[in-house]
Amino acid sequence: MLRGKHILLGISGGIAAYKTPYLVRLLTKAGAKVKIVLTESASHFVSPLTLATLSEHPVAADFTFLDEQGQVSWNNHVELGLWADLMIIAPATANTLSKMAQGQSDNLLLVSYLSAKCPIFIAPAMDLDMYKHPTTKSNLKVLEGYGHIVIPAEKGLLASGLSGEGRMAEPQHIVDAILDFFTKPLPLHGKKVVITAGPTYEPIDPVRFIGNRSSGLMGFALAEQAAQMGAKVILISGPTHLEQTHAGVLLTRVETALQMQEAVLEVFSDCDVFIGAAAVADYRPKELATQKIKKGATSISSIALVENPDIIGDLGRIKKNQFLVGFALESHDGLKYAQDKLKKKNLDAIVLNTLEHQGAGFGYETNQISFIHIGQSPVSFPLKSKSEVAIDIWNEILKKL
Ligand code: PMT
Asked: Is residue 14 in contact with ligand 1, taking CB distance under 6 Å?
């Protein structure tokens, strides 16, 4: 059932690590290829040699290692993270959970986790009071908010001699959860999604342009999340420094609104969902100077503008079964303007972000949104990272697909 799947197993330092050789055995028996990364304290609980033998791969524990020629080599955590179809951290101790929730990176397991592009599973294990503690619960909630799947600890006798909840889920239960994940279709499996992101630059002359402050983060996060949910994604982005690495996302870079519209129209007809997260310039200079306009030139005292096409508005007119989601970036009276755009552009839903909320909108790593389905009351969310906001947006869209 797991033939050809690449599973990266991260082992942190708890007594439950003694069960991981059996977990590796079950995973490889199901056909998976397993690579292992473990923390230093995990190696006190389980032998790297046992794990390397069972997984048939060297176990990665340090940032560096000595290669066959005795040279110091670097354990490439980015490669490990990208190799994996799924990463499971088992056991995940309270310490490792806390560091994952905070994005700390002081060991190879943590940097591999931060580099991983694949779904993340977490099997916590610790003493019952540690498991019950509010900080552990809130760290697990944060990690679930990132879209990770937590396999809850089970009840039973603990290493402390106490009995209760805190035992790592049995290896067979962990494998069942992984099998379930790979055999159940992902929620966006078979769907084609088109997303616009970033700003557009409207050239004035060969060196100047009219643009805006969009970083592209929101659109890229939506694309990444859709791909993780199984969609085929076409991301059409205006100028941004962001890179896209998920295999399920095809990135087309454009510069102007006209180029963005052309790229969108090429792929719109057979898509299932379109999201307009780009901050498209509403106007462009009427004339493009072929040479740099010199200081003091009379032609710069005013720039005549012409209206750009309303990309999503035009899609609203030609759409058939596509689910159309727009964004509204407002500075005041957000709900009113968002509702107007929803109707005027014939959208199925709109995401409102307003500059009235600190940390929302352009440039920030965070956003605060209200999601409005046509004909329904807005659903408001607190300030979150743009990756978390993307999960909320997709969960709302999934209600209607
Ligand atoms: O990129 P980030 O820094 O992460 O910032 C994210 C964001 C603030 C840019 C994003 O969350 C957002 O709000 N994008 C839309 C911004 C915007 O231009 O809003 P608008 O209210 O002007 O446009 C409404 C909708 O029409 C949007 O879906 C927009 O993509 C679309 N539009 C607008 C003009 C136009 N000519 N064509 C369009 O398709």
From this structure: no
Give the long-range contacts of residues 60-68, CB within 8 A, separation 24 or more.
60/35, 60/36, 60/108, 60/112, 61/37, 61/108, 62/108, 63/108, 63/111
Compute the distance between CA of residue 232 and CA of residue 223 in angstroms, rounded to an integer.
9
Where are the chain's structural domains?
Answer: 6-183, 192-398
CATH topology for 192-398 is Rossmann fold (3.40.50)
pTM over 0.85: no
C-alpha span between 343 and 214 (Å, rounded): 24
* pLDDT tens digits along 31-49: 999 999 999 999 999 999 9
Structure tokens at 301: 């005292």
CATH code of the domain occupying 6-183? 3.40.50.1950
Considering 75, 212, 346, 395, which one is annotated as catalytic?
Answer: 212
Ligand 1 atom with least separation from CA of 313: 39
pLDDT tens across 93-108, in order?
999 999 999 999 999 9
User: Cα of 301 to ligand 1 centre, how many Å?
Assistant: 29
The contacts of residue 195 (CB under 8 Å, 6+ apart) are: 219, 222, 223, 226, 233, 234, 235, 236, 274, 275, 277
Contact 223, 249 (CB under 8 A): yes
Ligand 1 in reach of 202 Cβ (< 6 A): no
- Split at pLDDT 50, 70, 90, the class of 298 is low
Mutational pocket test of ligand 1: of 225, 314, 329, the residue with most ligand atoms within 8 Å of the beta carbon: 329
Task: Confirm whether 139 is a catalytic residue.
Answer: no
Cα of 320 from ligand 1 centre, angstroms: 22
Q: Do domains 6-183 and 192-398 have the same CATH topology?
A: yes
Residue 248 Cβ < 6 Å to ligand 1: no
What is the rounded distance in angstroms from the CA atom of residue 29 to the CA atom of residue 60?
Answer: 22
